[in-house]
Amino acid sequence: MAEDIRFEPFAPFPIGARLAVVVGDPGEAGPYVIRVKVSAGVKLMPHTHPEDRIYTVISGVFYIGLGELFDESRLVAFAPGSVIVLPGSTAHFHWAKSGEYVTQVTGYGPLGIDYLGS
User: Fold this and answer.
1) Which among 15, 51, 98, 102 is least surrounded, fewest beta carbons within 10 Å?
2) How many of the other CB atoms lie within 10 Å of CB of 92?
3) In what order do the strands lie in the sheet with 17-23?
4) Per the confidence metrics, is the pTM higher than 0.85?
5) Per-residue pLDDT averaged across 79-87, rounded?
6) What's the burial of 117, exposed, middle or buried (CB within 10 Å: 0-12/13-18/19+)?
7) How many whole angstroms separate alpha carbon 73 and alpha carbon 94?
8) Which pLDDT score, from 0 to 100, does residue 2 have?
């Protein structure tokens, strides 16, 4: 149930970004579903994930850009209900530019994140 979903700090995330495990164990091999909540103004600097991911925007506007350097001009805004497919090892970045957002991420673990120079 939605009220049972608990967002917790996640060590690789900056302050203001939190993660909730919905299905599975993202630290293990196998399918997982997580939700990521990012407070207004918070940036997730350029990074990659080894696994393919499917993002579904739950609330707010999700701004994502592709590339190894943070570049505001490369951000694309996705409204609630939007779905974004991101192949593994794709360099990207996020910004809660217009307020808090929540995305649901589906993947096959283990989940990984590798921040790049920016």
Assistant:
1) 15
2) 19
3) 8-9, 17-23, 30-38, 101-109, 53-59, 83-86
4) yes
5) 98
6) exposed
7) 12
8) 85
Determine phi and psi for 74, rounding to 5 degrees. Answer: -95, 0
pLDDT value at residue 17: 97
Helix (H) or strand (E) run with residue 53 in it = strand 53-59
Residues 34 and 102: beta-carbon distance below 8 Å = no
Q: Can you read off the two tokens belonging to residue 76?
A: 């694309």
For the chain, how far is it from start to end, CA to CA, in angstroms? 38
In Å, how far are 56, 100, 114 from 33, measured between CA atoms?
Answer: 11, 20, 19
Q: What angle do CA 111, 60, 103 make, to 5 degrees?
A: 15
Instruction: Give domain limits for the chain.
Output: 2-109
Q: Cβ contacts of residue 30 below 8 Å, gap of 6+?
A: 24, 108, 109
CB under 8 Å to 114, separation ≥6 — which residues?
47, 48, 49, 50
Q: What CATH superfamily classification does 2-109 receive?
A: Jelly Rolls (2.60.120.10)
